[in-house]
Please model this.
Amino acid sequence: MKKTIVITGASDGIGKEAARQLHALGHQVIAIGHSPDKTKLVAQELGVHTYTVDFAKLDDVRKLATNLRKDFLKIDVLANNAGGIFGNRELTVDGHEKTMQVNHLAHFLLTNLLMDILIKNNASIINTSSIANRVLSDFDINDLELTKKYSPQIAYGNAKLENILFTKELHNRFHNSGITTAAFHPGNVASNFASDTTSLMKYAYHTPIKKMFLISVSKGAETLVWLADKSGDLDWKSGEYYIKKKISNKVDEKSLEPSIQKSLWDQSAQFVHLK
Model:
């Protein structure tokens, strides 16, 4: 069945590749990108609707939600894929730590602003996480902005853990209304990821050694494409974290605590002024 699929972070990397593959499968793809030039190239290549958005600006996210609501009567899949790892601690124009906002808060806001449409269509919400949720995070629910302990790696690991916490709380709140949710790890992908960071990860992803241990963008997009294409079927279970199309328990133990799931939701709602 043809689905309408919104993908953020679709101007590059696994988001772009997933858009390409899902379009080839016959789905209507809406590609959201950060770079105007790269997003334009996606539109030209695939002939799909595109929007350019800066997730470091929550007003951009609000405008995106308004445009999506105006331009599309239904959304079957929302793939919250945009993200990145950055350098020194930086606050956005909204006053939030940039890594958390770009990877988590912006998607939290976008998802909630589209929630009535998503519920109406029994939609699936797919969140791109990472094994960094377990190997890099040092998560403190009382210091989401990392005012006490910051490094690019910790900020990224915490944000990827927040993607999983968000997934589980979405399931808790909305599965009975018809929503299905999943988070996934795409693998360590040879893309432009980490190009904006000052951390050591930049050297792993942007030197010749990357060919020794990174997978292709096509391989990295496989689980996202599978989750989106099979949404609404019985092939995957809502509220879970996937690696290579299989449920994985390789998560930080904090992601399994309902009180932390709820607290992240409540604080996020306050941060983005969600009524």
Observations:
- The domain at 4-271 is CATH 3.40.50.720 (Rossmann fold).
